[in-house]
Amino acid sequence: MNIKEAIEGRISVRAYLDTPITKETLTDIIDTARWSPSGTNTQPWKVVVVQGEVKEALTEAFIDANKNSIKPNPDYQYYPETWVEPFKARRFQCGMDLYKALDIGRDDKEKRMEASLNNYRFFGAPVTMFFFIDKVMGKGSWFDMGMFYQNVMLAAREHGLGTCPQASTSDYPDIVRKLLDVPQQFDLMCGLSMGYPDDSKPVNQYRTRRDSVDEFTTWV
Ligand SMILES: Cc1cc2nc3c(=O)[nH]c(=O)nc-3n(C[C@H](O)[C@H](O)[C@H](O)COP(=O)(O)O)c2cc1C
User: Is 190 close to ligand 1, i.e. is its CB under 6 Å away?
Assistant: First the structure.
């Protein structure tokens, strides 16, 4: 697969086959991504690969926290407190496109909630990964983490695997740190689910939109 194809063909996969991923494949993906650049080659990434019983325990703990109305307490604020344009409209469109693919009506709050809880089930993926960064690192290193994270997603494509980046699975970082035995010193950046895509599901068959190059690029 060439780079253009890998980047342009990546989508967030939200339905997976049960097919397990071998440790060899998972190791190869991370082995490729470790060649990501980072400021002064600090390589700030820490990854935990999660499968089986621990993954099930995470799902249970997340859903429990949600059902008990425990407020999410992520280690950082991903989104703005107040949405403004053009981000507000793009976010709205993103949700509309997703619910359309899932055949969920605008006012069907129950189905929307269930779809949202599917995040905590990692959309049925056999593997999920968690990405951590040492609290001593600055904002710049979060850049490096982003590049590493994207490279894991791209390297997975070489093996026919799909991924879904998931900020939602960092809603309860203390649960994750406890179950994965990660010291408090590490901030949880994001989760990433991975598996062989179930292409029969419409949710994997729609594409999100992008602005054209001219809309965000100036040439001087
Ligand atoms: C850091 C990050 C966190 C995300 N978190 C979630 C999430 O929690 N749940 C989800 O369904 N999608 C999540 N997404 C997927 C985005 O909605 C998706 O990337 C965007 O709509 C563009 O669609 P595409 O990935 O299919 O190109 C996340 C994406 C990124 C980059």
Answer: yes
Half-sphere exposure at residue 26, Cβ-oriented, CA atoms within 13 angstroms: 18
Residue 210: phi and psi, rounded to 5, are -140, 145
Give me the chain's average pLDDT, please: 97
Is the minimum distance from the CB of 42 to ligand 1 under 6 angstroms?
Answer: no
Q: What is the pTM of this model?
A: 0.97
Task: Indicate whether 136 pLDDT > 90.
Answer: yes
Q: Is residue 54 part of a domain?
A: yes
Phi, psi of 107 (to 5 degrees): -105, 5
* Cβ(36) – ligand 1 distance below 6 Å: no
Q: How many domains are contained in the chain?
A: 1
Residue in this structure with the two tokens 């099930």, named with its chain if needed: 56
pLDDT in tens, 109-135: 999 999 999 999 999 999 999 999 999
Residue 128: predicted pLDDT: 98
35 pLDDT more than 90: yes
Q: Is the pLDDT of residue 106 over 90?
A: no
What one-character-per-residue DSSP string does 82-116 give? S--TTHHHHHHHHHHHHHHHTT--TT-HHHHHHHH
**Parent domain of 197:** 3-76+121-201
Which two three-digit tokens encode residue 170? 């960092």
| Atom number of ligand 1 nearest to Cα 146 | 1
